[in-house]
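re: the backbone from monday

yeah here it is again, tokenized this time
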């Protein structure tokens, strides 16, 4: 199995997640090629069994560079993909101190839905998705993030 992992890490959080994913998959005997989107051509991606796209969230959306990259991605319909994003940890309301519900977070955090919309529109097939929370814009990653990466990897079928 061959996986192409394309990320848009700006402060290094996404790059750390990508390396952890690569190590977890290597232990399963799977080759993962990790590249930043600045070093990849969206119209000329290598053939792979699975494409993993990773973007940090900014103001509840994927960063602009990742949106542009996904708009230009040229993969055959039916190609499989997964999403592994880094998103801000929800914060309590400033006035009430109440933490937002999952439904409230889903209304403002649209990183994965926007990425899925673009990729689904190209006829790609989603396998799974996950988010790793980040305490602040530059990190650190949430406690136990390595376990979440391993769980994400375990949901990927070993395709041949």
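seq for it, each position gets an aa:
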């Amino acid at each position: 199995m061959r996986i192409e992992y394309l990320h848009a890490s700006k402060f290094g959080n996404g790059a750390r997640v990508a390396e952890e994913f690569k190590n977890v998959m290597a232990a399963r005997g799977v080759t993962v090629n990790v590249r930043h989107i600045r070093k990849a051509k969206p119209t000329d991606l290598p053939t792979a069994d699975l494409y993993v796209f990773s973007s940090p969230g900014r103001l509840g959306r994927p960063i602009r560079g990742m949106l542009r990259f996904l708009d230009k991605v040229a993969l055959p319909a039916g190609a499989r993909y997964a999403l592994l994003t880094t998103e801000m940890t929800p914060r309590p309301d400033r006035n009430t101190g109440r933490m937002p519900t999952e439904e409230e977070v889903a209304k403002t955090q649209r990183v994965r839905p926007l990425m899925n919309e673009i990729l689904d529109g190209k006829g790609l097939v989603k396998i799974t998705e996950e988010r790793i929370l980040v305490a602040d814009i530059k990190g650190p990653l949430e406690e136990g993030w390595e376990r979440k990466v391993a769980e994400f990897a375990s949901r990927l079928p070993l395709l041949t």
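The chain has one domain: 2-154. Residues 127 and 157 are 9 Å apart (CA to CA).
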